[in-house]
Specification:
By secondary structure, the chain is an alpha+beta fold. A hairpin with a 4-residue loop joins strand 4 (about 20-25) and strand 5 (about 30). The chain has one domain. The relative contact order is 0.23. The chain has helices at about 35-40, 60-65, 75-80, 85, and strands spanning about 5, 10-15, 15-20, 20-25, 30, 95-100. It is about 15% helix and about 10% strand. The protein starts with a strand and ends in a 21-residue tail after the last strand. The strands form 3 sheets. The protein has a two-stranded antiparallel ribbon with strand order 1-2. It has a two-stranded parallel sheet with strand order 3-6. It is globular, with a radius of gyration of 15 Å.
Length: about 120
């Protein structure tokens, strides 16, 4: 999901805008191996970088494990199925729009508040 950052406060806001490479039906990147070369601001996550990204949602597996919490039942590493994130309604399926369909001046209108980021 595309995030916006307030230049003055540095606060990060999630939007309902996603990368054009996201297949919204299955919620997976269509060009995963080459995404960083194709998308300039595609963030590369790793367990070591979790502390740098305070904006990660509380449901993020990297954040969950770094904080010493167990993954939820719906996480594919626990359930063995990529469908459980959709069954739990934790995925972005049906909730987002591709960035090419949103004019830059309208991005602030796409800010959402259903992603939990609290510490």
């Amino acid at each position: 999901m595309i995030k916006l950052q307030d230049d003055e406060t540095e606060e990060v806001f999630y939007t309902s805008i996603v990368c054009d490479l996201l297949d919204q039906d299955v919620c997976k990147c269509t060009r995963y191996p080459e995404r960083h070369a194709l998308v300039e601001n595609c963030v590369q996550l790793s367990p070591e970088k979790v502390v740098e990204f305070g904006w990660l949602p509380t449901t993020c597996a990297y954040r969950t494990l770094a904080e010493g919490r167990d993954l939820q039942w719906w996480h594919p590493l626990v359930s063995g199925s990529s469908d459980t994130v959709h069954e739990a309604e934790i995925s972005v399926r049906g909730k987002v729009i591709s960035e090419s369909q949103v004019h830059e001046e309208d991005q602030q209108d796409m800010i959402i508040h259903w992603v939990e980021m609290s510490h």
